[in-house]
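ASSEMBLY PREDICTION REQUEST
Request ID: AP-0331
Submitted by: J.K., bench scientist
Number of chains: two
Total residues: 207
Priority: normal
Notes: Please return the full assembly, not individual chains.
Input sequences:
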Amino acid sequence: MKTRFLFPYWFRYLGIACFLVHIPIMLFFTKYHNMDSTDTGLFTGSHVFFIFTTLMVTIGLFLFAFSKEKIEDEQIMQLRRDSLQWAVYFNYVVLITTLIFTEHMEISHIMLLNMWTLLLFFILRFQWVIFRLNWSAKKGD
Amino acid sequence: MKNNIRVERAIKNITQADLAEQVGVSRQTINTIESNRYVPSTVLSLKIARVFGKPLEEIFMLEEGD
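STATUS: Completed
Returned structure:
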């Protein structure tokens, strides 16, 4: 089946690698470097570190979310669309509720987290329906 | 929508996996179509009908309420 806008299957492993790589870097950096809050401005140590780790996680999630399945067919495509819609709905419900129930100062943190939550909800839901599909097919035989 | 893929498969003596391979989908998709949990696209329906060498309406039929 022709699929547009999807990465090849092996990109999911690249995505997992990106995600895993940021963990030791994060642990190392936060242990040995003092995250100095006075260190502000573009491309200073903490800013570069922030960009690097945030991008690593985002790219990792993105590649994992939008790589092809082993057998790509129309049902998988439909499940992907459903999951995406579900993730957008869920994400906005969570976003709006957190905006209502948090103080003004924390909004930038919420927006930052929001960069990942949509992808995360999508991945969780999509993997869950695929798992259920495989499970019911196994049971059906 | 109902279908009698399971019956046709039995007549032709092929497995879900065989049929899936011939029409280019996963076995899970054939499984969900057979158990009426997934409605295939027109293209896929025509492909399945072609495997069994029968017209589309002998394999897929509308139900009350469709």
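REVIEWER COMMENTS: Chain A has two domains: 1-70, 73-141.
SIGN-OFF: pending second reviewer
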